[in-house]
Amino acid sequence: MAEKVEPTTTEKPGAEPSKASPSKGTEPAKKKGEQPKKGGSKSRPDLATAGGMILAVLGIVGGLLLEGGTLKDISQVTAAIIVLGGTFGAVMVSTPLGVLVNALKRFVHVFIDKTQAPDAVVEEIIGYAVKARKNGLVSLESEADKIENIFLRKAMNLAVDGTDLQELRNMMELEIEIEESRALNEAKVFESAGGYSPTIGIIGAVMGLIQVMKNLANIDEVGRGIAVAFVATVYGVALANIFLLPAATKMKTRIEQEVQMKELLLQGVIGIVEGLNPKLIRSKLEAYLTTTAPKEAKAAKPASGAKPAPGGKPAAAQAPPPQGAATAQS
Predict the structure, then answer these.
(1) What is the pTM of this model?
(2) What confidence tens digit (pLDDT) does each residue in 182-212 have?
(3) Domain residues of the chain, as ranges?
(4) Which residue intervals of the chain are DSSP H helices?
(5) CA pair distance 189, 197, nearest whole angstrom
(6) DSSP letters of 143-208?
(7) How far are the Cα atoms of 120, 155, 167 from residue 159, in angstroms, in the given order?
(8) CB of 122 closer than 8 Å to CB of 282
(9) Would you say 157 and 145 are in contact if contact means Cβ atoms under 8 Å apart?
């Protein structure tokens, strides 16, 4: 009589059982200590800044070469020293040292875009709103300290701590105003430099003419000296209108984007504190997403059951004739 043999396993005693592959529709377990990704800022190069500066320089130099000039005609080390040294010296005189240092740090924003993606920020806020609506505002206490955005972390901590809504709004709006004022002062450093640079270039040109006047006996040297003297003016005007003033304008644009992002975050936190429906919060925050309106307009479809008429309009738009008109026809 044959005995029934049961299948044996090759696992050793004390060993962990083999992990089964997750079935379709199930999510693998997260690693211990792993945190969900937040909508933090992602640095990316600003190709418009680099491309614009290169195009401007190529256009000016190309025009010079087409007119028969050479790069040697505008290559003057002394003129560059006068313009750069005089411009930045005047900036140091007119600007407090702390503001000047912060302005140099902010200068990176001209070439690198560090603004947050509004879509990711909205989704992050909606996630907090859903959890607060289900489990209460206190349930966000464990996540508030892990938020990457400093402004959102501060606002969320105030909300979790039970700060009065009006007081929370006043505090965060005051912070927005102070940060905006500080950032604008840093952008004005480059705007001021753009105003000094052409004037310093004129000073360099006058200094060159003074040296020319010493050689009036030699007419050939006078003509060459006058041409060299005006190189400082070219440097001053070009530095202001290609580099300094556009950089100040780009900084102001970045500041406006940062202010709008903070206003978005504040409106989201206020909606969470008020206990609004997450869908309503999303509708409020989508006003800051300028790219969503055209897509939603294209995605709009006629109501179900409405068939298009031969003229292209839905059948629902064609109203039936009044009852009195129908009886008159009969």
Answers:
(1) 0.69
(2) 999 999 999 999 999 999 999 999 988 888 8
(3) 44-291
(4) 47-66, 77-94, 97-106, 108-111, 118-135, 141-144, 150-160, 165-213, 219-229, 231-238, 245-274, 278-285, 292-299, 323-329
(5) 12
(6) HHTT-S-HHHHHHHHHHHTT--HHHHHHHHHHHHHHHHHHHHHHHHHHHHHHHHHHHHHHHHHHHH
(7) 21, 6, 10
(8) yes
(9) yes
